[in-house]
Structures are given as C-alpha cells and as structure tokens.
Amino acid sequence: MARSKLVKANEKIADSVVNGYKKIENGVVGGYKKMEDGVVSGFTKMTDKFVDAFLTHENESVEEAKARLAEEQKAREQSC
User: Fold this and answer.
1) What DSSP state is assigned to residue 61?
2) How far apart are the first and last CA of the chain?
3) Is the pLDDT score of 63 beyond 90?
4) Gyration radius from the chain CA atoms
5) CB of 26 closer than 8 Å to CB of 36
6) Chain-wide mean pLDDT for the chain?
7) Which of 23, 47, 56, 64 lies deepest, with the highest CB count within 10 Å?
8) pLDDT in tens, 20-47
C-alpha cells in the first residue's frame, strides 16, 4: 500500500517536471524562431533596398538583378 502511494507520487512529480520542461522548451524555441524570422526578414529587406539602389540596371527588378548577380558570381568562381 505504501509502495503504491510512493510510486503514484513519483509519477505525479515526474509528469509535472516533464510538463514544466516542455513549456519552457517551447517558449525558448518559439522565441528563438520569432527572433530568427525577424532578423532574416530585416536582412532581406536591407539587401533588397541595396540591390535596388545600387545594382539594378534600367527597367530591371530586384529579383532579376539578384539572379544576374548570382550568375555573374558563379561564372567568376568557375573561371578561377
């Protein structure tokens, strides 16, 4: 009888600890993902503005300029 009470108490404590850990883990991971998404989107906006201001040719979109620059970079790497 006493043994089963101890086992039940231990299981209850273990469940509480595991659930608490999962809540903390989900909070930390969720916060990291939000921060990462913010940083990546901010960097993308910044690079888009830079490419638009300095690297596009006439009537060329930012996406077209980025594709052209990637091809030029690939060609330079292959020639070396």
Assistant:
1) -
2) 79
3) yes
4) 27
5) no
6) 94
7) 56
8) 999 999 999 999 999 999 999 999 999 9
